[in-house]
Amino acid sequence: MSRFFSSKYQALTPYTPGEQPKDLKYIKLNTNESPFPPSKRAQKLAKDAAKRLELYPDPECRELTKKLADTLGVQEDEVLLTNGSDEILNFAFMAYCDSEHPAAFADITYGFYSVFAQINNVPYVEIPLTEDFRINVNAYLGIGKTIFIANPNAPTGISLKKAEIEEILKSNPDNIVVIDEAYVDFGGDSCVSLINKYDNLLVTQTFSKSRSMAGARLGFGVGNKELIRDLNTIKYSTNPYNINRMTMAAGLGVLMDNDYTVKNCKTIIENREFTRCELKKLGFTILPSDTNFVFAKSDKISGGELYQKLKENGILVRHFDKERICEYNRITIGTKKQMQALISCIKSILEDK
User: Is 213 exposed, middle or buried (0-12, 13-18, 19+ CB in 10 A)?
Assistant: First the structure.
């Protein structure tokens, strides 16, 4: 750090993203990207939008907002599009957290929550998952804090039912509850339908996973119009032109080709079940998953060693050093061919043991 770096950030621990290799020699199963490209219509619309990059994009994202609202069954003023779901999550920390409204989230969950809390100088508590790695619903009841829950959770892959989230919402009527649904399209239970039943609910989602747009950076929040008005205040005070033209166009194309997204999700779920069954045959413990990844460990090899051996053999998965989960690896679900290659490689590694 330079001598000019503000002291208020000197203790900040930044988020560590998954490895992004500079070459294509790896089978990349480490960052929960889709193995499928965006739809052809999305690609064409993005290409056409590139011809007008000399002009600023529409700061209101009107066409895309209308299409997304129609797709979700909500009103246009109940949706806010952002530069990835990370931006809407940061907006929520900025808008709804302070010294009088500390944040609360799980101790094992999306690693950016603690970073957002630190960079916004927000006090926070981490609530331990249960022994079987589930969100402890009772621990969130009536706690009087701004709550952030990834549902399904990451990196565990386990989800809460909508009724359980309603209990949390009802017991914290004076605090915002943010439900981060980045992986909901792979088997989770979305809470979007609850936004007008509970005025303290904000739902966030992303185009990065099921919609094949991780490289375009597009996310959104859904809540009652008063909440969206709050978040627009933050947006227009920080980055009004937050969605570029090509991303906006690609997002519109993705929504127009929703059948393509649904088909891809179905394939990923099938490949997830194939992977889960094959790992189980090899003696792995696999947590239940409603996501596009599995969280698995073996008693025949440590999590760190398996990660390293797979990497040496050209396959990237995600390993975490946190004590409770260091024996696990998070494995993104790719194509059937990629998952067969993974299983074959793990078999060889275990045989060598």
Answer: buried
As a whole number of angstroms, the distance between CA 51 and CA 44 comes to 12
Neighbouring C-beta atoms of residue 173, cutoff 10 Å = 12
For residue 333, tell me if it sits in a domain: yes
- Phi, psi of 254, rounded to the nearest 5 degrees: -60, -45
Determine the Cα–Cα distance for residues 126 and 310; give it in Å rounded to an integer: 32
Per the CB < 8 A criterion, the answer to whether 173 and 200 are in contact is yes
Report if residue 7 sits inside a domain.
no
| Gap between the Cα atoms of 91 and 286, Å rounded | 34
Tokens of 248: 């906006």
The answer to whether residues 61 and 193 belong to one domain is yes
Please say if the pLDDT value at position 242 is more than 90: yes
The amino acid at residue 1 is M
Find the helix or strand (DSSP H, E) in which 298 lies: none
Query: What does the DSSP 8-state code read for residue 18?
Result: P
Question: Final residue of a domain: which of 195, 226, 256?
Answer: 256
Element (H, E) at 117: helix 112-119
261: nearest Cα among 209, 222, 214: 209
Q: What is the pLDDT of residues 55-70, one digit of tens each?
A: 999 999 999 999 999 9
| Count of domains observed in the chain | 2
In-domain check, residue 2: no
Please give the residue range of the domain that contains residue 113: 40-256
| Phi and psi, residue 177, nearest 5° | -115, 115
- The arithmetic mean of pLDDT across residues 240-247, rounded, is 98
Do 87 and 172 sit in the same domain of this protein? yes
At 106, phi and psi to the nearest 5?
Answer: -70, 155
DSSP 101: B
If asked whether residues 297 and 162 sit together in one domain, one would say no
pLDDT, one tens digit per residue, over 133-183 is 999 999 999 999 999 999 999 999 999 999 999 999 999 999 999 999 999
* pLDDT 10s digits, 291-349: 999 999 999 999 999 999 999 999 999 999 999 999 999 999 999 999 999 999 999 99
Distance of CA 168 to the CA centre of its chain: 21
**Cβ–Cβ under 8 Å, residues 328 and 13:** no
